Amino acid sequence: MRFFFEISYNGTRYHGWQNQRNAVGVQQLVEEGLSKIFREKVAITGSGRTDTGVHCAQQFFHVDLEKEFQPEKLIQQLNSFLPADIAIGGVRQVKPDAHARYDARERTYEYHLTTRKNPLLVGRAFYCFKPLDFQIMNQGAELLLGEHDFESFSKVKTDVNHFICDLKSARWNQKGDLWVFTITANRFLRGMVRAVVGTLLDVGSGKITVNQFKQIIDGRDRKLAGMNVPAEGLYLVSVKYPKEIFLK
């Protein structure tokens, strides 16, 4: 039987989600925990990758399990094996062909930025000391909406077949001491959100105009876009699936 597990984690200590040869990813620790519980090697498939240092409020992975279990007890057991900065939030049975990555219809990321130095936000938000015009940045963000080729904001070496993404929303909002950029799309390219944010910061600081930002989108060249902002401010906050894949 196939199950979807919901997971969250603070990514500061980890080299992203994916298993790595010479570094520890979140996937490795979860597989080790499940393997101990079921006393056999267990492999899981995540809803997507996250880069080193990226945080996650909600992500999913699927796993095929033959042995019966009590969901609440399994969650408790698995959480006891996992470190304090990784947590399992739930488990649901799905159709046998349901896929955590390919069945995802929508993903939402947030990027947290502070313009005031705050030691309590170290590792959780990016401190930008430059004056920024967030109204102008939102004008630029509006140009991202809809279906576009986002090659300008993708890592150069990536194994995707195309760079087309359909963006549903993209906007900066102030939340207390933080400015939060929320972006939702059907899919994201590797490094895309951090490159988009870095380029919008160039708009907000006056380095480039909104019109030049549009030219960068249309240019389909990573060299045209701005820097990748640090991973510490990036959060995967939501992954949505069609209801019909869930059995319980």
The largest sheet is:
10 strands, mixed
Q: What is the first-to-last residue Cα distance?
A: 12 Å
The average pLDDT is: 95
Secondary structural class: alpha+beta
Task: Report the strand count.
Answer: 10
Poorly predicted runs are none
CATH class of the largest domain: Alpha Beta
Indicate the CATH topology of the largest domain: Alpha-Beta Plaits
Oligomeric form: single chain
Helical run tally: 5
- Rg, Å, rounded: 19 Å
Mass-distribution shape: globular
Question: Can you characterise this structure?
Answer:
With 248 residues, this protein is α+β, with helices and mostly antiparallel strands. The chain folds into two domains: 101 residues, 2-Layer Sandwich (Alpha-Beta Plaits), CATH 3.30.70.580; 131 residues, Pseudouridine synthase I, catalytic domain, C-terminal subdomain (Alpha-Beta Plaits), CATH 3.30.70. It has five helices and ten strands. The relative contact order is 0.19. The mean pLDDT is 95.
Write the layout of secondary structure elements.
Layout: E1 2-9, H1 26-38, E2 45-46, E3 55-64, H2 71-81, E4 86-94, E5 106-114, E6 126-127, H3 134-142, E7 146-149, E8 164-175, E9 178-185, H4 192-204, H5 210-219, E10 234-240
Parallel strand pairs: 3-10, 5-6
Antiparallel strand pairs: 1-3, 1-4, 2-3, 5-9, 5-10, 7-8, 8-9
